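Following up on my earlier message about protoporphyrin IX containing FE. Here are the inputs again, as you asked, copied directly from the submission form:
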Amino acid sequence: MNAPPDQQTARPRPVRIVPPRDPLPAFRLLRTVVRNPIEVWPQAVYEEPIYRRRLLNRDTVFVMDPELIRTVLVDEAAKFTKSDAMLRSLQPALGEGLLTADGERWRWQRRAAAPIFRHERLTGFVPEMIAAAERRRDSLLARAEAGGTVDIAHEMMHTTFDIIVETMLSGRAGIDADRVERGITEYLESTSWTVALALLRAPRWVPYPGRRRAERARDYLRREVLRIVAERRASAEKRPDLIGLLLEARDPETGRAMSDQDLADNLLTFITAGHETTALALTWTFYLLDLHPEIVDQVLAEIAAVTGGNALQPEHVEDLAYTRQVLQEAMRLYPPAPIMVREAHEDVLVGDDRIAAGTSVYVPIYAIHRHARLWDDPDRFDPGRFEPVAVKTRHRYAYLPFGAGPRICIGMSFALLEAVAILAVLLPAVRLYRTSVNGPDLKLRITLRPGAGLPMHVERRP
Ligand code: HEM
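Thanks, got it. Here's what our run produced:
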């Protein structure tokens, strides 16, 4: 929904969720969970440090205070597992890969995948990131010549998909990007049903609208990754990419190697977790930049200063500090993964509150990033909030687009490098502006998506 304009600048404010003042009654709550679960969170979640509620017979706690977040995600992390609703939504597709496993099974997969995300390895990927961004720039310029309109959400999905496939699987491996993107969207579309059914503790076999479509999408995605795994196993060639690393990985305790199913779980996890989220971060950034031409000018000035007006080189990316701040602020207002949910598997003390085993604990990133006690004028887009001095004065856990603690996003640095590289290649070449004055709808489907994409006119930047 469009928020009232900024009093000082008269500019339109970025779209936001308008929370219900009071908790929704059970039936409306369930209907809203199916339509758009983020609209269930009451105003208190944006104002209070902690909020307890019995949600459909289940004890639920929302944790917003940064110190309490530290307790849940860091200090007492071992007392929590991923939530049943999240697992029920994602495990049918991602099995027990890195994102959806717990305990020892998670630990050894994390150790196995970690080396590929080391800084020196990541910097080696930047030329491929820039090349993918340049291909997208050229295709956008071709569309601009034809007076075109593009769905920037779709364009960004393709760009980040290209990057993840080129870098992690070293080569496209014959994957159909359009079909995969459609598959992921179709799969995620039905997750609000799986969340609602998990809240009701309905058995897993219960049918729901879109289930068959989601299962077909999942089957397609899994077939594709199993094909890639089989091709790599059959080839004698050893490549230092993610599959190569995972094929070689051994559990230090048991010596066990990954089965084809384990590999498929993880490849699908990296393909989905690794491109959707970054694409959404960029999509929301383009939306915000369209509202703030003065910030576009500052980003362009920084890019020109760093590159000297020449083509972006890999070594420039880390020097684009303001461009990175713009992305960080976009992820504050629109965190691509807007919520993390855990379940306590033993009693835990969180601040003064005793959380009983079986309680669901929500870390509502979207609401924390707009929390009245943590941010000044929270709905305003202001990349200045990420200047180093401002960051130092803020609590580390007031901002957590990548999560925190041992389960922090493994792809964080990768995502920031690629997002900065993509912006720095596209912005000087093309001007994008929205086709409608109305802001996009915010829709929670595990990730935070613009409801009907983000159509934008594209022009060559003079
Ligand atoms: C802007 C982009 C991204 C955002 C906002 C994001 C966000 C997150 C968040 C919040 C988590 C923690 C989930 C939890 O604790 O419940 C997470 C985990 C994860 N992310 Fe990302 N992510 C992004 C990009 C990436 C990329 C590029 C990759 C891979 C190349 C990736 C792979 C993963 C994986 C595998 C996990 C599970 C880690 C574990 O549990 O050990 N993500 N991400």
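One observation from looking it over: The mean pLDDT is 90. Hope that helps, and feel free to reply on this thread.
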